[in-house]
């Protein structure tokens, strides 16, 4: 017997999918006193917590620890008691099974916390796969039916694949399989140089895997500012990642055991170029909405040709009382965008005034080494939109904290609208690359969304020495009188 809401047995909100979009809607709705049920086929937390952001960042942290230990001698730290006399110095060794179990512990702790929080808010979680029926009823695959005054669809997305690269979990992997590995391949081809491809290429290469990164477009990280992309590409190449842009992949041919090992491999075939022999291929060519089986006949929810549920600015679908958020809709596939959309939908359900998400100004963070973080327009996007701009870029080479860390590959770039007398006006975009920039984006995000001008932002005092000074210095330079930056 499924618990029902109040006397009517009808929940204020039934959420389909307990990922970031769905659980945020449930928590925010319950915090406002609404009765909420969440139908979840697997575990609450969704892709982000179990197969995406959180585990990927846990492994990127493993890579960071490895880098730190590898360079410890530069800081005068002898990290091991040294090899026996006569043997060459040892480099650190990765025990990926331990990394995997540490990652799992982090995920499990967060999962228990989230499930407990949902219980403590009185949210009913129903195990199973939900299908929306006419009349705002959700049928669970065990036959149970749950009624809602409103339904929020938040079924998320799954990795896209490419023809000829059928995922088998051994030779051909997507992010789902990579994040479950208990040992690392010796070599890998990563197909797709977007956020996932760059994070995986960076992490695997740092942990000693020979990586080839194959991107169909002319550059990595489409949508990021080109000066930022140049820093990432240079760093990748310097660390031994082979980056092939403009790659045309026609297929792959599995091979027998590689070298002296029992491990198999495959040859990735590129048009007009040599074949690449690798132990594993990681396909990271985007994600598609999980729409199959979600909507029964006659529910009246419009879906576009790519399978995304169509919504208006307030997350309303074409069917009254049915809302959709997260990766199921064609907006940036970011957990925090799912959170924001969930709050817009719940405010709409409550009859409150909701401010639609401004997708052009949401924060973006890519946790590769070096990290990338930005909000607002790139220089190319601003010029492409016909805007007259003033641009200033400050490389991290002169930043004291970056020198102290020994990580000076990076920059802060600010794009502002040109105002009267050529001065820098409204800040259109801030783009950062380098150490811990994902944790420094806050003030940049506020400047862009507040439509501040450099004269205002430059008046704020930055701590010294700090990485965040580079942001303040760039703003100061845009006022026409820089301190360290000209
Ligand atoms: P993506 O769309 O960001 O990048 C996919 C890349 O693959 C593109 O550059 C595309 O040109 C390339 N590509 C497509 N087909 C190809 C082919 N046949 N050969 C070579 N290259 C090909 O997708 P993603 O990196 O898989 O990420 C999925 C979604 O998840 C994105 O929306 C992404 O923004 C989001 N995400 C974000 C973060 C983050 O912000 N840190 C991390 C992971 C994922």
What does this structure look like?
By secondary structure, the protein is an alpha/beta fold. It has 3 domains: 11-50 and 102-159 and 288-360, FAD/NAD(P)-binding domain (3-Layer(bba) Sandwich), CATH 3.50.50; 172-284, FAD/NAD(P)-binding domain (3-Layer(bba) Sandwich), CATH 3.50.50.60; 370-478, Enolase-like, domain 1, CATH 3.30.390.30. It is 29% helix and 23% strand. The chain is built from 13 helices and 22 strands. The strands form 5 sheets. Strands 1, 2, 3, 4, 5, 6 and 17 form a 7-stranded mixed β-sheet that branches. A hairpin with a 4-residue loop joins strand 18 (364-366) and strand 19 (371-376). Helix 1 (20-31) runs parallel beside helix 8 and helix 3 runs parallel beside helix 6. It is globular. The mean pLDDT is 94. Bound molecules: nicotinamide-adenine-dinucleotide (NAD).
Q: According to CATH, what is the topology of the largest domain?
A: FAD/NAD(P)-binding domain
The hetero compounds bound to this protein are: nicotinamide-adenine-dinucleotide
Calculate the terminal CA-CA distance, rounded to whole Å.
70 Å
Give average pLDDT, whole number.
Answer: 94
The CATH architecture of the largest domain would be: 3-Layer(bba) Sandwich
The level-1 CATH class of the largest domain: Alpha Beta
- Uncertain runs are none
Strand residue content:
15-25%
**Major beta sheet, specifics?**
7 strands, mixed
